[in-house]
Design a protein that fits this description.
It is built from eleven helices and six strands. With 236 residues, the protein is of the alpha+beta class. The strands form two sheets. A four-stranded antiparallel sheet has the order 1-2-6-3, with helices on both faces. A two-stranded antiparallel ribbon has the order 4-5. Helix 9 packs antiparallel against helix 10. Bound molecules: cobalamin and iron/sulfur cluster (2 copies). One iron/sulfur cluster binds next to helix 6.
Length: 236
Amino acid sequence: MIDEGLAAGGLNVQAVADGAPYQDVLPGCRSVVVYASGGRRLWERFVERCKADPAWVRERPHALDLHVRSLVTGRPGRWVFCSPTESTFVDFRLLAHAAGVGHASRLGLLMHPRWGTWMGIRAACFTTESIEPTGPLPGDGPCAPCDAPCIATCPVGAVAERVDIGRCARFVDEEETCKGGCLSRRACPVGEAPYDALEQAWHTDHARGRRLLAAHLGVDLGEGPPSGWGAWAKKG
Ligand code: B12
Ligand code: SF4
Ligand code: SF4
């Protein structure tokens, strides 16, 4: 079932969910193949691409999402991307959980057995083909026996049995403390390849991440987007 080409590109977590709940996405849907990136590979391939062709960082809004789209181009099925530019909304944590990509965690993120929460869900392929579902995973996952440093680490007590996303979002908005990434996610012992500062910045604040990536690659951004990422995205 594993698409080795996509795995080599960084979509290295692949799993299948029953398609029955997704008739609104694809009438007659029988299976959904979920693609996620665990660890660093997708990001490293993306940075290599930006290095080879700086237009990727200079001119393309949501360039990592475009990169993912380009990886699957030409493959059959109805593709939906986990991206702000996608017009079809899918609750990807629920879908990936059903497919057995990982366990639910106290952080509210899906936790892969190997990559922990350092896993981005990137896309799903909805198909009328019948493929044996691979999930959900058995057992409670790593949170049950853990003494939860994620709870103690959050400076505003937003992590408990579930995350208080409103409290978290207000704090992230108003204070500098978590602008470089979620401290509780960093404190979690599960996962073997946490993002570095650059990848974290990209996933936390696209405009800042883009500036840092350009600086890292020595790319001159010129004047950049006219007024905010949104306006720039519409141009693209
Ligand atoms: C909107 C959004 C946000 C909003 C939060 C809004 C919210 N209410 O949660 C903001 C901008 C704050 C945000 C922040 C982050 N997000 Co976000 N976000 C999304 C997005 C686009 C939609 C989520 C959503 O609204 N779902 C629908 C509503 C109805 O769901 P809900 O009410 O929250 O929850 C329902 C179910 O989902 C379920 N449920 C709730 N929590 C969980 C957890 C699990 C594991 C499961 C199985 C089910 C489940 O219960 C609810 C009732 O049914 C998804 C991508 C996507 N399309 O799914 C990414 C997504 C969930 N985010 C992701 C990430 C990584 C983050 C950040 C870490 C980003 C960062 N800054 O580094 C933070 C972490 C915040 C946190 N601790 O949870 C990843 C999670 C990957 C993973 N391993 O699980 C996703 C899947 C994007 C991706 N490309 O992978 N996010
Ligand atoms: S620190 Fe422990 S309780 Fe918190 S998310 Fe990680 S495994 Fe779960
Ligand atoms: S981003 Fe900061 S405030 Fe939000 S859950 Fe993580 S540590 Fe807590």
